[in-house]
Specification:
The chain is mainly alpha-helical. The protein has a single domain, classed as MFS general substrate transporter like domains (Growth Hormone, Chain: A), CATH 1.20.1250. It is 79% helix and 0% strand. Helix 14 (244-275) packs parallel to helix 18. The longest helix has 32 residues, at 244-275. The model has no long low-confidence stretch (mean pLDDT 87).
Length: 438
């Protein structure tokens, strides 16, 4: 084809909007089971561990699938991978809605594993995060990525808080089955909208149109695209895995984002069981005191990282997580105002840290951003699956006081993250806007 006759569709702004929209509708699955955990625990006779596993279920596929799907972005752009994940999530929600329509509230213990499976499948939408990260990064120059990625993640991260807040009200007003059917219809409609309007960055559009790679690279750079993928899916994963900085960021993200995913589900259970708070109020406490706060303040974390460097911001943010976890442990199950303050401090710390960590991904691995985003977003978010069952074991072993004492897990994680962030700051802190050499 003639390159001079080819017209790029979309813009950085529309690319950001659609990536954010796709992430928002898929990411809501973080709150899939938390509002109904107590209901299902009673009906199915679940132990603390199995309850924690159910709450965490969507985060397993939502974390592990980020690795191959984010790397896939380096090969074909973000639209196809993100749409595929949303379609899988639609299938999971359709199965869950059908099961509830046919059997709820006469569920039997043997159905636990089917409910768990549909949770895994619905969680595929959570994996859209790292796909959208790479998709957005390819649209924007490096000096603007901190803010763009902060907006993307900050707005997209609102979904679990909003759904975790609204679902308890919907459960009371229209019932559990109808609530999940409406959620399925929302996800289906959103998936169709994304498929119709999302556009890939210029390089990927040019390659799909048959433009030779060399010409596509030249033209894309003329149009302002700085990041250009250099290899296949496997090469992208291999290239990013060679950087020790990638694994440092995985560890940081395990605490900040994996910890965020875990607590978005767990805080609802925490408030209901520790303080006997009604489900709707527990949803509001989780949303405004933690999830929505962490999501919005993530934009600030990205912006501040553009100014002073993500490493230094991470040190400060994880210090807040440490302080917040200590406050919740100190409050026990008897000091409600202190527990609330601990939740707020943790939410602020995790949100700022999330913005800082992903500012560092394209800085450290500029030639395999998709692969790096996959490792960091995937293995880091795995914390959302690992942590809730561990918190459930504290409850199983200690009774009700275990809900607060379990936050010792976050003290250990935060201390580890502060050490890693400090080492990164010492090595690279002064190179705020300069990518590390390959």
């Amino acid at each position: 084809m003639q390159l001079e006759n080819f017209k790029i569709k979309g813009s950085p702004t529309t690319g950001l909007i659609m990536a954010t929209f796709g992430f928002f509708i898929g990411f809501a699955a973080v709150s899939l089971y938390a509002p109904v955990a107590k209901n299902l625990k009673d009906i199915l006779g679940l132990s603390g561990f199995l309850m924690g596993l159910l709450v965490a279920a969507p985060n397993l596929t939502g974390s592990l699938l980020r690795i191959p799907f984010a790397a896939w972005v380096d090969k074909v752009g973000g639209k196809i991978p993100l749409a595929t994940l949303l379609i899988l999530s639609v299938i999971g929600m359709a199965g869950l809605s059908t099961l509830l329509y046919l059997y709820y509230p006469e569920l039997t213990p043997s159905m636990y594993w089917l409910i768990l499976f549909f949770g895994f499948l619905s969680g595929c939408g959570i994996a859209t995060f790292s796909v959208g990260i790479a998709q957005t990064a390819y649209w924007f120059p490096e000096k603007k990525q901190g803010f763009a990625l902060g907006v993307y993640a900050g707005i997209g991260n609102l979904a679990p808080g909003i759904f975790g807040m609204l679902l308890p009200f919907a459960l009371k007003e229209i019932g559990l089955t109808t609530s999940y059917i409406l959620w399925f219809l929302f996800l289906l409609a959103g998936t169709v909208i994304y498929i119709l309007f999302a556009k890939d960055a210029p390089y990927f559009q040019l390659v799909k149109a048959g433009v030779p790679r060399e010409e596509a690279v030249r033209k894309a750079k003329e149009l302002g695209q700085e990041l250009i993928p250099t290899g296949s899916l496997i090469q992208s994963l291999k290239n990013s895995a060679k950087h020790i900085e990638t694994w440092a960021l995985v560890a940081l993200y395990f605490t900040s984002f994996g910890g965020f995913l875990a607590l978005t589900g767990w805080f609802i259970v925490f408030w209901v069981q520790s303080y006997d708070i009604e489900l709707r109020q527990a949803g509001l406490l989780m949303a405004f005191g933690f999830s929505l706060l962490a999501s919005v303040i993530r934009i600030f974390g990205g912006w501040l990282s553009d100014k002073i460097g993500g490493e230094l911001v991470s040190i400060m943010a994880f210090s807040l997580v440490l302080i917040g976890a200590f406050i919740i442990i100190l409050a026990g199950n008897s000091n409600f105002p202190l527990s609330i303050s601990g939740e707020i401090v943790m939410g602020a710390g995790m949100g700022i840290a999330n913005g800082a960590v992903f500012k560092l991904v394209p800085k450290y691995v500029p030639h395999a951003t998709g692969g790096a985003a996959g490792w960091v977003g995937g293995l880091g978010a795995f914390g959302g699956f690992v942590v809730p069952p561990i918190l459930g074991l504290f409850v199983q072993g200690m009774g009700n006081i275990g809900y607060s004492r379990g936050f010792v897990v976050y003290i250990v994680l935060a201390l580890s993250a502060i050490v890693i962030s400090s080492l990164l700051w010492k090595a690279y802190g002064k190179e705020i806007n300069k990518p590390i050499e390959e």
